[in-house]
Prior knowledge:
Layout: H1 3-11, H2 32-38, E1 44-49, E2 55-64, E3 67-72, H3 84-94, E4 99-109, E5 123-124, E6 133-138, H4 143-149, H5 152-163, E7 166-171, H6 176-189, H7 201-211, E8 215-222, E9 227-236, E10 239-247, H8 249-253, H9 256-270, E11 275-277, H10 287-294, E12 299-311, H11 316-326
Parallel strand pairs: 3-4, 10-11
Antiparallel strand pairs: 1-2, 2-3, 4-12, 5-12, 6-11, 6-12, 7-8, 8-9, 9-10
Helix pairs in contact: 2-7, 5-9, 6-7
Amino acid sequence: MSDTEWDAALDKTIIWQNHHDFVGAWSPHNYSAWARMKMLDGWKSLRIVNQKNEPVAQALVRQIAGVAVTYCPGGFATSEIPRPEELVRLLRSHLTVRGLYVRVHDITPSIYRGRTLADQGWSSVTRPMSSGLSLLLPLDQHLESRVNRLSPNWRRNLRRGETRGNVGSIVTKPSEDEIAYLYQELETAKHGFVATWERSAAHLKQLIAGLGSRLIVARCTSDSGSIRAIRAAVKTGGCAFDVLAATSAEGRKHYSSHLALWTLMRELSQQGVRHFDLGGVDPLNNRGVYDFKKGTGATAISYGGEFDASFPKFAGQAFGDLLARLAGT
């Protein structure tokens, strides 16, 4: 199955079907563009399909000293979740290794996931790599309703952003160099913040090219055209998923991030997106980002969670620690 065929099949996937009637991949990490980008860091990909040749998952694989560490960052792209022993057996048939570890990060909101991974025998990880929390913003509302959802502080800062020499726009040809520059500047300004692939122009170029029209990028500049902020999301069926956000030092003084996000939200709504997942939050360890996203009027959600399986079983914790070290590269 080619990249184009895989991505097209993901867009037709039914993750859940109830009164929300959602069809689409939900997670951007299941698209071929994500795997292509991660290949720059030494990861290989395995695409798993069911008997109907429909997408099940995209697994990223690193092999070290006879051990295959396998990660499915987008979870399962199906409501028919395979049992862990089935997936381990399948992966071992394609990999010549002595040990194998697989972790599945189910970022489907738990309120929408009918059968959970735990129901199918998967084990919750003891040391997850994320908070497992996010915020979901409905975009299928009139503009006035979306404005009314904003917190008073967010609404006030948006007005400041609109009146302090900012120009918000949607760009059809994003500049990987411009985005990388903003992230590099952000690393310098925010002590403790470390960007990974976002600071690399080569990685961004690969992702931008692979996602094509699925990637929606909002850009905020000064009146003179200097870049102040960017915000980007990936459309995944009827949803969009927040993937990039960076603001310059000048932009932080002029509330450019508020205008960039608002510009992106308006564009997504105009393109028919109904759900906007704000890309994960951590209220304890990154309160500032949480408060900023929460101010949009989004609702808190829990993801399905992180689950794993290993062969042999007793090595699961050691293999999981290895994955945690590799996941940022």
